[in-house]
Amino acid sequence: MDLGVDEMNQDGKILRGLAARYSLALQGAGNAEKERLHRAGNDLHMVRPVVLVDELPWHELNQTGELTLCCEDPYLREVECWLRRELFQFKHFRADRILRPFVPVGKVVRATGIGLTVDERQLATDRANHIVSHEYHDQLATPEDLEKLHKATVVYDEAETARRWQLVGDLVGDILPVKKVGIDHISLNPWDDIARFRGVTPLLISLAEEPEFCHQIMRRVTDIAMDIAEQYRQLGLFENMPASLHCTPVLTDDLAPMRPDEGPVGYESLWGRGTAQIFASVSKSMHEEFDIEYMKDTIGRCGLVYYGCCEPLDKKIDIVEKIPHLRKISITPWADVDIAAEAIGRRYVLSAKPNPAAVGVSRLDEEALRRELGHILSACKRNGCACELILKDISTCCGRPENIFEWARIAMEMVNAY
Question: Residue ranges of the domains in the chain?
Fold first, then answer.
């Protein structure tokens, strides 16, 4: 039942105010042009590089109270947080971010455990920052320890999803559409999980000294992850309405269209994403043997694939491109962008990750930033690469949000002159 304003509690009034501001932002958002740029880049017909900023130090950005949460209901606080953050980015450093024309209500999906949880010791220098140091304890030290791992059972809580959708819809549905959203891509990063279950040093030693044991671990963890993905598919949780793919543009005309009338959405309508960040420290042949081979029949079943994160891949493009349906490759600050761009050419999207240290300083060095971004853009232009600039992994801006605002302004100026 729709509530009158007088009957509405404080939470409702807060959300309605934010929804009205969001609706106003949508009217002048220029989403259609942003969507065109995103699609063109991902479809290898780039108009100009797309610029996005994500993975932010939110604990340092609330200098003026714009991000302060006021709702009391736990779920409505989540909706409030989403609206406030979207409005904050739109106001201060939108770059090429697309505003979703609705309020998303995530489908409530629960899963039983897989037999292990992370056992660790943490060290934090800033208690307000979720970026901390981790010391992981090895829980997969012997082949016998593999028996601890088992498949999970996934449950879709339709009743709770409907409750949340109705709750938000009653409050703001006359201002903005409210939509249930499900799983919009498959992400497979088993070595990240294994590193947390084992610790980095034991993992790397095992790769060298116990390769067969490492294959057994990888096979078990990969099978568990793909079994979860298959349960998502069977439960009808997949949909192709993503906002982004791990901070990068995701819109494309090259994915198979969804046909819900023909049954659950399949892998061919989704992006797949894989990464093996810990393999920054291993050889190309080891990277191929212990990760790429597993990606071929997992995320390789998806319609399009994005591979990589923080591991330098500039000298490994030839093994990465063995993954079927590869479309996008992450090139980090620790990679040689000249080598990467030459190897990638016009065949894939070069997803460049400029160094977030540029904004983690007392004052942004504009000259140094222009050199860094100019180097990336020149390498991509010289080799005909479709490319994008993604500022992410920002653990700090030294309490100066204006560093991020200025980074986005400079990046947009440079890509508009590309």
Answer: 5-416
